[in-house]
Amino acid sequence: MRVLSSGLYARFTDHGRIGHQHKGFTQSGASDTNSHNLANAILGKALNSPTIEILFGGFMVTATEDIVIAVTGAEASIKLDNSPQSINTAFCVLKGQTLEIGYPSLGARNYIACHKDYDIAYFLDSCCMVARERINAMGQTSAGLQFNEIVKYRKVGDGELSKVAVNNICNMTEQVVDQERKINPLLLTKLANEYIIRVVLGYQHNLFDHKMKALFFNQRFVVSEDVDSMGMRLEGKSIGQKSVRMYSEGIVNGAIQITPNGLPIIMLGERQTIGGYPKVGSVISIDLPELGQCRPGSYIRFEECDMLTARQLWLLRQRGMKNVVARNSVATNNGVATNKGVATNKGLTTNTKRMNNGE
Amino acid sequence: MKTSNSIAVGLDVLDIRVEIASDCSLIIYVNAEKAGVANANELIRQLTKNVVDEPPFWLREYIPSYNSLLLEFDLDSTDHIAVKRYCNELINRATEFNKTDACDVILDQNIRLSAYPRKANMHRIPVCYELSSLDSDLGKVAMSKNLTEDVIVKLHCSVRYQVYATGFLPGFAYLGELPFELSQPRLDSPRLKVPAGAVAIADQQTAIYPLESPGGWHILGFTPISLLSDELGIEPLLRAGDSVEFYPITKAAYLGWPAPHCKKISLQSAGDLTS
Fold first, then answer.
1. How far is Cα A222 from Cα A220, in angstroms, rounded to an integer?
2. Per the structure, how many domains does chain A have?
3. Looking at the structure, do residues A158 and A34 belong to the same domain, yes or no?
4. Do A277 and A346 sit in the same domain of this protein?
5. Is pLDDT above 90 for A247?
6. Same structural domain for residues A56 and A100?
7. Beta strands A274-275 and A249-250: pairing type?
8. Which of residues 105-134 of A touch B (CB under 8 A)?
9. Does some domain include residue A199?
10. Fewest C-beta in 10 Å: which of A6, A134, A350, B275?
11. Which of B215, B221, B211, B220 is nearest to B190 (CA)?
């Protein structure tokens, strides 16, 4: 596809770099991992396959060959040569057709998965580029997709959809699509003006007394202008701060730091690997994607959650997502050889191997 | 024999805690106030080594730091209860000398660390302290400490530093402890751009910026060597447990230093400085 407009910022993304944080490499990855996964699942692809992440719409591409794509994420208009398309479904983009993603009315980011594998560079088993690292070993830049850039696809191989299958999808009527591919609402990232974000208490939470915790859990914070892939600064009433001398320590995705002014910063995908602010706890895994759909001015309320509930919720969604992958890789299976089994396990095994070499 | 190889670190089991970090990670803390950060770090390194030697199947990430070790697990494969059990076993294993040697237990209730054979490296790193005109705080540090620049350089080179933690940026290593005379807080307002190779100090620590980045440390000099040692720029030169010594080189030596084998990191700063 050829990029006609990349909007504010559009980039390739996946689950990020796993297993390199002890060397100082941040994780990165899709801001709304759930929508990223869903886009791949709808096409029956491995969940870690790269997608295009679009911040605040304004994205336009022309297809250079026939492809099947799925768009997920924010509530935005999706137009194919000016005819509206539904979100969260697979549809065909024929050679020469123009796809346009508009400014979202709710949420912030959209994801485009393609049945073909984008031909892009990898670093540390991920296509994510981190601006501040400036490592261009693979010829990558962190500038994201640029005007007139041509996105190529990997040659026919695993994960390739045959011409027959492309035609099958193109010939499906809307109804068939709806029936066969309806997505369980539990698998969608919630889009709202006000989010309830669940938190497990952890790290230095004992430093924060009852009054501070009450202030933390019983107010509506506002997402400030100061938000990017590294972190999200919230505004609201200060919960107070105790001066504490502590050593820098590992920071997880979703860790909530309380800065000296008593306000939270939620650490996100591109956070630094270690840091020394006290933390009250962390956002649970299943609620992290919603942070990727927050925009400046969105409201956030925190709610306490326990570890086992957090895991149950996560497992439910993962299972649902795997079902979607399975269903859709069968539905479009006229020639689709998805490598989902291999790819989902791959991360873990290579990971372990690397850990043996590391340190 | 085990005893002769072990070091008492002034801690007991109660000084090691396992806390929740998130729904998919736990963090092990060693009480550094009690044992001193060097001993706490020694124990963390031993725990880390045990994890790395036999990584559990659920392990996604591990981040050792000064006195803590963060372990992230795969939520699909296990839960925090099992991981907590693993952490407790890990701690017991690293501190088992306490139990095996009855004498020690009577003499002191301290945790004893085995002097485990590790491949810790000793690095001698050349630093040019003479590029003070640009981007260097050497003059200011000297002034605020009421010492000459030469004394500052001598002090900075007088210590064998330990790598306590790596992180923040790829290849960034936190080295300690800085001679007390040099210790001072971070800059009031951080620089937006610290050039790659800058050798800087803050609090009780010193470090080298592997890449150009924002930073609030006081820059004393610049090193011509690359901190990501392999061809791909993935493997850091300095690892936790390594020791580091700095030695001064002249401006001519700095500029004439052979290009680092790691191509990605352009020594842009060197070019800038000549002009």
1. 7
2. 2
3. yes
4. no
5. no
6. yes
7. antiparallel
8. 124, 132-134
9. yes
10. B275
11. B215
Average pLDDT over residues A232-244: 87
Are residues A22 and B61, on separate chains, in Cβ contact within 8 Å?
A: yes
Q: Let me know if residue A315 belongs to a domain.
A: no
Q: Do B68 and A200 touch (CB under 8 A)?
A: no
Structure tokens at A217: 């859990």
pLDDT, tens digit, 9 for 90 and up, residues A138-154: 555 667 888 888 888 88
By the CB < 8 Å criterion, does A359 face chain B?
A: yes
pLDDT exceeds cutoff 50 at A243: yes
Measured from the Cβ of residue A303, the count of other Cβ atoms closer than 10 Å reads 11
Tell me whether residues B65 and A248 touch, CB distance under 8 A.
yes
Same domain, A201 and A125: no
Contact, A22 vs A359, CB < 8 A?
yes
Q: Are A263 and A234 in contact (CB under 8 A)?
A: yes
**Sole residue written with tokens 């956070």:** A271
Distance CA A20, CA B174 (A): 17
Q: Within 13 Å and on the Cβ side, how many CA atoms surround A334?
A: 8
Question: Tokens representing A244?
Answer: 């504490």
For residue B62, give the amino acid letter: Y
Residues in chain B: 275
- Do both A136 and A149 map to the same domain? yes
CB–CB contact B68 A249 (8 Å): yes
Co-location of A305 and A326 in the same domain: no
A208 burial via Cβ count (<10 Å: 0-12, 13-18, 19+): buried
**CB contact residues (below 8 A), chain A span 337-356, against chain B:** 348, 351-352, 355-356
> What is the pTM assigned to this prediction?
0.83
Residues A353 and A301 reside in one and the same domain: no
For residue A276, give its domain range. 194-310
Is residue B113 within 8 Å of B9, Cβ to Cβ?
Answer: yes
A213 with A121, same domain: the answer is: no
Give B61's contacts in chain A (Cβ within 8 Å).
18-19, 21-22, 27, 250
Q: CA–CA separation, A245 vs A192, rounded Å?
A: 38
Domains contained in chain B, CATH given: 3-114 (3.30.1360.40), 122-274 (2.40.100.10)
CA nearest to A203 within chain B: B21
What is residue B231's predicted lDDT score, i.e. its pLDDT? 63
pLDDT tens digits, A297-308:
999 999 999 999
A26 belongs to a structural domain: yes
How far is B6 from B97, CA to CA, in rounded Å? 8
